[in-house]
Design goal:
CATH class of chain A: Mainly Alpha
Number of strands of chain A: 0
Helix content of chain A: 40-55%
Radius of gyration of chain B: 19 Å
Largest sheet of chain A: none
Number of domains of chain A: 1
Strand content of chain A: under 5%
Oligomer: heterodimer
CATH architecture of the largest domain in chain B: 3-Layer(aba) Sandwich
Number of helices of chain B: 13
CATH topology of chain A: Non-ribosomal Peptide Synthetase Peptidyl Carrier Protein, Chain A
Structural class of chain A: mainly alpha
CATH class of the largest domain in chain B: Alpha Beta
Number of domains of chain B: 2
Largest interface: A-B, 10 and 12 residues
Distance between the termini of chain B: 17 Å
CATH architecture of chain A: Orthogonal Bundle
Largest sheet of chain B: 11 strands, mixed
CATH superfamily of the largest domain in chain B: Thiolase/Chalcone synthase
Chain lengths: 82, 396
Amino acid sequence: MAATITPDAVEKTVFDALPQFGVDESAITREATFEELDVDSLDLAELSQIIEDEYGVQLKGDDVGKIKTVGDAVDLVVSRAG
Amino acid sequence: MTREIVVTGVGAVTPLGVGARTLYERWRAGESGIRDGVGAATEYEATEHLSVKEARRADRFTQLAMVASDEALAEAGWSDELPYDPNRVATLIGTGIGGIGTLEANHRQLLEKGPKAVSPLAIPLLMGNAASAAVSMRHGLRGQSFATLSACAAGAHAIGTAARMIQTGDADAVVTGGSEAALTPLATAAFAALDALSDLGISRPFDAQRDGFVMGEGAAVLVLEDGERARARGATILARLAGYGASSDAYHLTAPEKDGGGAVEAMSAALRDAGFGPQDVVYVNAHGTSTPLNDRAETIAIKKVLGAGVPVSSLKSAIGHLLGAAGAVEAVATILAMRDRIAPPTLNYEQPDEGLDLDYVPNEARTLESNGKPAVALSNAFGFGGHNAVLCLEVA
């Protein structure tokens, strides 16, 4: 059963996931770009997997190209709800 | 060999610790890195050498190669800036199996949780060329890079092939070596199923009681340079890679030829390539696995090529069999030993076996007579599949 998608829940998932990839926790904000955080396509593939596992929402290649900031990723997942 | 190939830096991570000198000095002192029948690189801690991101982007076999490469490049004086056009520096790291730990972990995920639980990092971590890729990226080496894959000869094949790259003019320098991290349930069970492993967990090459090899893990990396360029930049020359010989048994998937056939050819070819005769060789670093078949066939091969007088010892007695890393780790240890004019010991040697009557330097290191001449050594590596690769190393 996938977890309920709320902006806060998704934000927490993303904020919790990034440090596992080696991202400095103190640098993570909604406004931070993935480039600044040194989060690359492989990290985003892992993040997509975590999100799909938790919320049943798939992020595909095209989606990943569109998101620039942490907030973009959170918003995209939330927009896919329902 | 036409163009002179020199070694200007070495690095190693092995069951005897982190560092090439640590490996050599502990082996020379008769220390063993084997615990409970396994040669694990227990002193290696990823967090001491790699960032979180670097470590999780690399299987253990790649990590070990990265750390060994840092040491080798630092010794060569390359840490701050490459002395060559990066496009002229190649990377060639051999492995027997590659990232089998990653493969096993992801296969477990697949079986337990389904295909969506398999990591996007699985392939880039498990591929056998991952160590070469990581070392190339880590140091900005933009010449050709790939892996050699020839079981337990992979490290020696990498070093020999690297030398050829320089000789043909394809590269001015090569960062090369071998790496293996296969102390995993599948690899261990598979070698055990082949009856290749020691039931007693003791590595005792050439001894009558030997009953198989002990698995080990580790990596070694060497910086090879065109001798003329290395001298021009004032590099310290650790050794010359004077010759390289490789052959195939074309005989059996796992067993060596009983008369040492392919090994004889590889050793002879390495000597011819170096322009040396049997009388020039002061020491042989044997493949010496501690299996009944290898040690007998290798003894026969050494006798055919060099006669029975030359000191022969096996590093595997102290660290186990590092598979695709073995040829590189043993080359590094041989270089450092020849610099000291020392034949390090074959540990755990107790009972001579019939017909195995070489001088195996049992249990204690020995000083070699140098007579003021350069020390010439052979380092043997033979792999499942009948692959033979032999390096001829010369230390001034």
